[in-house]
Amino acid sequence: MSFERPRATNGRAPDPFTIGGWTPMREYAEGEPVDFLIVGAGAGGATLACKLAEKGFSVVVLEAGPFWRPLEDFASDELTQEVVYWIDDRITAGDDPIELGGNNSGRGVGGSTIHFSMISLRFRPEWFKSRSKLGYGFDWPLSYEELAPYYEEAEDALKVSGPVNYPWGPPRRRYPYRPHPVNAAGLVLARGAERLGVKWAPIPLATVSAPRGKSPPCVYRGFCNYGCSTNAKQSALITWIPRALHAGAEIRDLAMAGRIETDPKGRAQGVEYFREGGWRFQRAKNVVVAGYAIETPRLLLNSACPRFPNGLANGSGLVGTHLMTHAGPGAWATFEEEIRWYKGPPNMAVTEHWNYTDEGKDFVGCYSFMSQGPLPMKWAQTVATSRGFWGEELQREMRKYNHMAGFVPVAETQPRQQNRVELADEKDRFGLRIPKVTFSYSDNDKRLQKHSVRFMCDVLDAAGGYDIWTNYQDTSHILGTCRMGDNPETSVVDGDGRSWDIPNLWICDGSIFPTCGGVNPSLTIQALACRAADRIQSLAAAGRL
Amino acid sequence: MSERRPRDRASKLLGAVALGLSSAEMIEIARRGAPQAPSAPPPPGPPAGKGMLQASAALLAASVLVDSAIEHYRGSFRNPGMYVPLLSSTLALLSGVEGAATGSEPAWRPVRRSSYKMAVAVGAVGTAFHFYDIFRRPGGFGWLNLFYGAPLGAPPALAVSGLLGLCAEELQNAPDGSTKLRGFSAGRVIAALNAVAFAGNVAEVALLHFRGAFQNPFMWAPVALPPVASGLMAKAAVEPPAKSYPLTRIWLWLTTVLGFVGMGFHAYGVSRAMGGWRNWSQNVLDGPPLPAPPSFSALSVASLAAVGLLEEEARDALPEDKAAA
Ligand SMILES: Cc1cc2nc3c(=O)[nH]c(=O)nc-3n(C[C@H](O)[C@H](O)[C@H](O)COP(=O)(O)OP(=O)(O)OC[C@H]3O[C@@H](n4cnc5c(N)ncnc54)[C@H](O)[C@@H]3O)c2cc1C
Ligand code: SF4
Fold this sequence. Notes:
The structure holds 2 protein chains of 2 kinds.
Chain A: E1 12-14, E2 22-24, E3 34-39, H1 43-54, E4 59-62, H2 70-73, E5 91-93, H3 130-134, H4 144-157, H5 184-196, E6 201-202, H6 240-246, E7 250-252, E8 256-262, E9 268-275, E10 278-289, H7 292-302, E11 324-327, E12 330-334, E13 349-351, H8 353-356, E14 367-371, H9 376-387, H10 391-398, E15 404-411, E16 420-427, E17 433-438, H11 443-462, E18 466-471, E19 475-479, E20 505-507, H12 522-541
Parallel strand pairs in A: 3-4, 3-10, 4-7, 5-17, 10-20
Antiparallel strand pairs in A: 1-2, 6-13, 8-9, 9-10, 11-19, 12-15, 12-18, 13-14, 14-15, 16-17
Helix pairs in contact in A: 1-6, 1-12, 4-12, 5-11
Chain B: H1 4-33, H2 50-74, H3 84-101, H4 109-136, H5 143-148, H6 154-173, E1 180-181, E2 184-185, H7 186-211, H8 221-238, H9 246-272, H10 280-286, H11 294-324
Antiparallel strand pairs in B: 1-2
């Protein structure tokens, strides 16, 4: 397998559903400004590309990673599949440096949705106004009610398979597909929660429980975090991207954006990008950055010019700041019966109890937690790094693999100025300054995690687990760094993702979240992208683009 | 966890007992059933549809046999009781085939009757087991467990097969040409049974096709057409017998065909799973159940038999009316 040469060229793009297959692709001249030039083909970028192309805009997407055909490219092997991760050099700092790589960002058409766990949850309505309603963080410039129709649209586009009645949140339309059967690891959560009198639910997942077009139903083999080789997973690669291509968008794979150029009037005029061995330039009327919460601020900062010496869209000085992650401490236990937690998608049961209950907390913020199913190598790594086991001891522990179960929360962290992405002096292979990511937990963040670990241990215990142990190292999603808001002084973009400083520069990804809530973000990112597309259309119609 | 195990053990024990009992019953059936010297020739002019009834019992039993074989194999025969429906439906299938093919050889009658009774009993016990399986899962009686727990509609199908067979046997036993079952109109009784069975079957299909999100529009057909058949049977059961049921017959032929077409659709469904038919050993187990749709055909054939009996009853009644006039 060699992915050094782009595949999406000469008027055709790979068809992810067919071995060796192609689909026709429209191409645009570099010298002619396209309506929208999008950097990044992940949850945010792919969705927006599809929606804008379907609305008739000309769209080109630059994606740093390859254009996969899962059926032929994805191996059932933990090591081989590291190709789907963004593992370029980054510098980490702070009291609690975030481990960066496979656990938080992807590289390739489809972005991190290629290897995400498919959990598709909506935000709790109050989180959109968490400053005014819950007393922490920042208010979003839009409300749950404004986003609800777009949540529905995204859920339908992904044919999310979820419970008939989801126990939390306001009334909603039924999920398009029915829930998957819950694996034994999920039933541990269910059993424990029921014994403690806490609600649980099968997780709404973006992998189909029945055939959908060319997607077969999920086969429950559990390789989801390494790229789904059956196409059951409704990643951006097989949902939004084919639609975008069909509607006339061009996707350029293995195209690394290095710099956004601005014209003398201070408007973005295109992007300099590296492809096929050289730097090229694509002109555009609008530029959208959708590189996720580290690469997006990095690109904005790397695009500094005499007119914008602190980087683009950075009048507020906030670009790169208020980085949030979801803390993921774990609680683990051994069970007498066989669990075989590798079976099925890694997370199949959830409780959002502490997302929707505000009493009984010695902290602000929320968390949900999910049953887990790490594959053997990942598990050996966890055991080795967090318990210091090696050699015979590690072997002994690994023999329990099929009898283990455990939980990890999606634990909210507070947006804080000092947690941030900056530019390091070192450069990458493209000659671009690499990001330096600084992160420390606040005392509140730590109290929240302790609470979650205590509660998860109680649930494991109630479910009959023994030899319970915990670890505090993991994190998952990365969010914030270019937050949206109502005020140009205190935010980078407005609720549509449009930057305050440069009106034809937009951001559409996880970096615009003002707060991160206690659920996984991709559904919200996709809903925001759907909404942004509608807003762009209305702005265009009103002549305000 | 440890609290659950005794319960599991108890259910396995019960299953083992059920398996033991049904095996003993099988041996007993075989012993008693060895045909003696050919006895009196079959009574002349059997009531219409009796053979069809036996055939429908056989078809339904066949559907149950294959379905429970696949599903219980998929469940690794965790509980010894999971073998029981295989034994019972095999007996019901053989009885039905024998009954339909030989025009009800009297020498085999005790065998057939015992097999059918066993099917009714096993169906009833199985239903209880399947209910238990649903309630013992976390979440209890809810959508998730209705979708993925033991299917509630499967064991009753075996019981219905047994009941249809028993009806056929009763009719056999009755004086020549009688259309009465223990004094009741046979046509109406069987129509009523089919009305209920169709309704149950539709409920099961509706549940499972809902689980499949009705992703293919054709998945609506088996929840749209059979309810009409159920209604027609209910109507036939409550109204006085008529001389002919042209519309009902057409509809029942439609649902008969539907069952087999459905099997074709399920085969297509298997082909859409990862690896398609090349990976049949997994996809036949996990894909849409191939033997399920023909259960509609079985009920339709039984309903056609009921219609035949009703028409006969109406014709029998006619001369008397004339005589009275
Ligand atoms: C292991 C794992 C499990 C996850 N599980 C879940 C889950 O279950 N549910 C959930 O909601 N979320 C989950 N997530 C998170 C989710 O995948 C991300 O939050 C989401 O995909 C982020 O969307 P995005 O558009 O911001 O960025 P991405 O989807 O990461 O897309 C960014 C894209 O931009 C490209 N890019 C970046 N910089 C450049 C550049 N300069 N030039 C060209 N291209 C560039 C990248 O290659 C990448 O493809 C998971 C993430 C991981 C890593
Ligand atoms: S478990 Fe399902 S979603 Fe995950 S990789 Fe396998 S088929 Fe794909």
